[in-house]
Structure formats: C-alpha cells, structure tokens
Amino acid sequence: MAEIETCTSCARRFELVEVGGGMTSKEPEEMKCPYCGHVRMRLASGRLRTLPLPDHSGLQAPASD
Ligand SMILES: [Zn+2]
Predict the structure, then answer these.
(1) Range of the domain at 31
(2) How far apart are CA 9 and CA 62, in angstroms?
(3) Residue 61 placed within a domain
(4) What is the pLDDT tens value at each position of the chain, 65 positions in all?
(5) Distance 39 CA to ligand 1 centre (A)
(6) How many angstroms separate the alpha carbon of residue 28 from the centre of ligand 1?
(7) Distance from the CA of 6 to the center of ligand 1, in angstroms?
(8) Does any domain span residue 32?
(9) What is the pLDDT of residue 2?
(10) The total number of structural domains that make up the chain
C-alpha cells in the first residue's frame, strides 16, 4: 500500500510505505523526506518508510493535479 507524497519543503515526490501495521488505532508517525530530510507527522497504523522515486523524466506524462 504505497502512496506518493510530495514534500512540503523541497516539493519533490517520494514513495510512502506503511510497514508493520495491524494496530487498530492510528498514531502520528514521522514521515521523512528522503531528499532533504524534512520531517512531517502523519497518522498511520504502522511505521512509515519513505523511498525516493526513480527519476522518471521522459518516461511519464507530466503530473497534473
Ligand atoms: Zn524534501
């Protein structure tokens, strides 16, 4: 259950993976940008791992939100 998050500091996107879930309640967990180290808190039922996204320039259409 990976998600794509955008860092609020450097505006780069990274993959967010929740690991070791299973708890019924969500608690604030650190979500650290793999590029600049900026940390945000986010509610999660497990630990949060962040992974840099592969550089996909030229492989995908520009993201449009
Ligand atoms: Zn960042």
Answers:
(1) 2-52
(2) 20
(3) no
(4) 689 999 999 999 999 999 987 767 899 999 999 999 999 999 998 899 999 998 765 555 555 55
(5) 8
(6) 19
(7) 8
(8) yes
(9) 82
(10) 1
Q: Is 35 within a domain?
A: yes
Please identify every residue whose CB atom is under 5 Å from ligand 1, which is an ion: 7, 9-10, 33, 35-36, 38
24 assigned to some structural domain = yes
Q: What is the pTM of this model?
A: 0.73
CA 5 to ligand 1 centroid distance, Å: 10
C-alpha to C-alpha distance for 38 and 18, rounded to whole angstroms: 18
**Cα 34 to ligand 1 centre (Å):** 7
CB neighbourhood size of 6 (10 A): 13
- For strand 13-19 and strand 47-52, is the pairing parallel, antiparallel, or unpaired? antiparallel
In whole angstroms, give the CA distance from residue 49 to residue 32: 8
The phi, psi pair for 52, rounded to 5°, reads -65, 140
